[in-house]
Specification:
Helices cover 82% and strands 0% of the residues. It has a single domain, classed as Ferritin. By secondary structure, the chain is mainly alpha-helical.
Length: 174
Amino acid sequence: MISAKMAKALNAQIQLEGQASFLYLSMAAWCDKEGLDGCTQFMHRQSGEEREHMLKIFHYLSEVDTHALTPAIKPVAHEWTSVTEMFKEVYKHEQKVTASINKLMDISLKENDHTTNNFLQWYIMEQREEENLMRSLLDKIKLIGEGPMSLYYIDKEVEAINAAELAAEGEEEA
């Protein structure tokens, strides 16, 4: 069993991960509306990943005999002025998640909660990867530039990154 403070913090993280899943799902719908198939697929995959992150914590709380709470999801944005703006928001959100995971880690260390500390190690690595991915996407978008012609190349670049990420996931499962 974990402390009430840790359980409350982990339940808050469930809400944050669920919020990210819905935000990215909304972004996928916007990308689809804009005809950005590669970005649509990418954001659908990101949404699914965030849902998995949420469920992983949800199941962990059950494993340690604590009550996992189904989160209330706040309304999310549905429109962006550009792909750049959208990916900047994703990067900012991933930084927020990283900060939250770091706070969870701080609690686990202060409470000598080695089980939760061990559990959170996966999230530490995952967030480093997520921030790096979003930062590299923003760098590529910056290099390509914006405008109607650039959107095609941005979408193709995101599609290639998505395919590489899916292939890497397939290798991990094998």
